[in-house]
Design brief:
Chain lengths: 327, 244
């Protein structure tokens, strides 16, 4: 009984220690290119953490999370360029809109099981992409250029340094981790894992499977949209191609799959390995090697599913219930 | 006498052209252990699933604790006090034994700490406490059956429904299973069990209901039921002769 509490406390301490270390890294790493990779790594760690809530814990594999990412980015960018609304409100608004859309989409799709659900998520995200691609008000295929109004936290714009973005991404990552940590030992967390393992048994024990999935989808979409809003501010130019393509959906799912699906640390571990690898291959190979990173993803998926279906975390402890800690 | 805890009134279930249950009316009084028996294809599992709320009957009503539950989904029936186990065990394989039971305990406990305490009590009661931190998938089959019962008991049911939970166990395991069912009844829980193994069920149950070809054939004391000519011809005849 106590080993459980101890494990949770140990996770929390480890996370705090890692956060402090991550906060100190920019003092030693001044290279802008490397800082850029670090920002993306933290962002994808958080996004994958969000994806993991629905895909990992609740077992509803989504390959359409680019939709929520794009909605977060577009809501923020549109509100700022058209109405002068500060990005922070756009970020929240995008989160709420995404959560509502996730609920609306969940209503029909959560009646689907297995492969049909995955296919539905891909198709819906593709429809979203096409809608934005043809929506003139939102810049259609040209996208939205977010005008520079000077560096400030209020407008969440920084042209001279990447550090503010780095620290925001770090906080975002910590918040996503902490929410997962907290949910893990909550009613919802237990319901989700039960729904993933066996929906019929869950239902027989009083778990309303449909509502559980809806809850997971809403939280997951909300957090994903926050990431999208952040990304819009970070790159200050968005178009459907840069925020809503299938590749983003993959990039949110893969770190969790690589690190350990449905685990607390899987998304972080996966992102730390996968994102730098992607960015580095891209820059080494340059413009002509477009698509090589995709080949890498494919290779990663194949190797993981063959050798370690539980993800890399499975290498460290075969059993999550930690035997060494008791007493 | 007071109203029965569970009652089905004229329940029918058709699957296309197949009639799985026709006009089945049974009742279970509070505190009883009732056995639902019959040969393969008699409609036991269908009736069981109708009561558990897996699907609504084509016709007829199901009453539990004075309420019409015919149209309620399984989760709501669980909230009212109907808990079940599955014939083919459905553990939450990637979760630990204790976490499996906590899922059940959450329906009556809002706080995680209370649910955890309840789950530990139930594991103790079912003799699974030493396995609490194991993953469900690492349990041996008889332990998995026990986990099914533990999980159901954690929902603090009034009626516990056991679907062939003693089938396929070694005689020794089955005997300790029987002891567990008796212990459950002593805590005031009513038990409705579907079973195949006559030798085990008959001494255990207070009353047996025999289904055959979707219809209720006979019901009564187990000793009377096994002597009933219709029951012998329908099902028990050969088996019983071999067993005796």
């Amino acid at each position: 009984m106590d080993s459980f509490t101890q494990r949770r406390r140990r996770d929390l301490i480890l996370a705090a220690a890692l956060a402090v270390i991550a906060a100190c890294v920019p003092f030693f790493v001044k290279d802008v290119y490397v800082q850029n990779i670090m920002v993306l790594t933290l962002m994808y760690a958080a996004l994958s953490q969000a994806w993991n809530i629905l895909g990992g814990y609740c077992g509803q594999i989504s390959l359409g999370h680019a939709l929520y990412f794009g909605l977060g980015a577009y809501t923020t960018a549109l509100l700022f360029t058209k109405f002068g609304v500060l990005p922070w409100f756009g970020m929240l608004g995008g989160g709420v809109i995404s959560a509502l859309i996730a609920l609306a989409l969940g209503y029909p799709t959560f009646r689907l099981r297995g492969h049909y659900f995955v296919i539905a998520t891909i198709v819906i995200a593709e429809i979203g992409f096409l809608l934005f691609h043809n929506w003139d008000y939102a810049g259609a295929a040209l996208g939205i250029d977010i005008p520079v109004r000077g560096d400030s936290w209020a407008k969440f714009q920084f042209t001279r340094s990447k550090l503010p973005f780095y620290y925001f991404a770090l906080v975002f990552c910590c918040v996503a981790w902490f929410i997962t940590w907290w949910l893990e030992d909550s009613k919802w967390g237990f319901w989700w894992r039960a729904v993933k393992d066996n929906p019929d048994a869950a239902e027989s024990l009083g778990v309303v499977v449909f509502n559980s999935k809806m809850g997971a989808a809403a939280v997951s979409a909300f957090l994903t949209a926050i990431g999208g809003a952040f990304y819009a501010q970070f790159v200050s130019y968005i178009d459907p191609e840069s925020v809503m393509t299938f590749q983003f959906s993959l990039l949110m799912a893969l770190p969790a799959v690589l690190g350990g699906i449905g685990t607390l640390w899987g998304p972080v571990l996966g992102a730390v390995i996968l994102i730098p690898m992607t960015e580095l291959t891209r820059s080494f190979i340059g413009g002509s090697g477009r698509g090589v990173d995709l080949i890498l993803y494919g290779a990663v998926i194949v190797v993981i599913s063959l050798a370690r279906p539980d993800g890399l975390l499975g290498l460290f402890s075969r059993r999550p219930a930690s035997k060494g800690v008791s007493q | 006498m007071s109203a029965p805890l569970l009652e089905t009134r004229g329940v029918w279930q058709r699957f296309g052209g197949l009639i799985a249950n026709s006009d089945v009316s049974i009742s279970v009084a509070a505190g009883e252990i009732v056995g639902l028996i019959g040969p393969n294809g008699a409609g036991k599992s269908t009736l069981f699933n109708l009561i558990a709320g897996v699907l609504p009957p084509t016709q007829g009503t199901i009453w539990f604790d004075g309420k019409d539950v015919t149209r309620l989904p399984a989760a709501e029936r669980c909230a009212l006090g109907i808990a079940r186990t599955f014939q083919v065990v459905k553990s939450f394989e990637t979760m630990t034994v204790i976490d499996n039971v906590i899922v059940g305990a959450l329906i009556r406990n809002d706080k995680m700490r209370d649910a955890r305490r309840k789950a530990h009590e139930v594991l103790e009661f079912c003799g699974l406490a030493p396995r609490a931190d194991k993953l469900a998938r690492d349990l041996i089959p008889s332990e998995k059956r026990r986990l099914e019962v533990a999980r159901a008991l954690a929902t603090e049911p009034k009626l516990l429904m056991l679907d062939e939970c003693l089938t396929g166990l070694t005689p020794l395991e089955a005997q300790s299973g029987v002891a567990l069912v008796r212990k459950v009844r002593e805590t005031g829980v009513t038990v409705l069990m579907v079973e195949h193994v006559m030798e085990i069920v008959m001494p255990l149950v207070d009353r047996a209901i025999v289904l055959n070809l979707g219809k209720k054939l006979v019901e009564g004391k187990p000793t009377d039921v096994v002597r009933h000519p219709e029951v012998i011809s329908a099902y028990l005849g050969d088996r019983h002769a071999v067993g005796a």
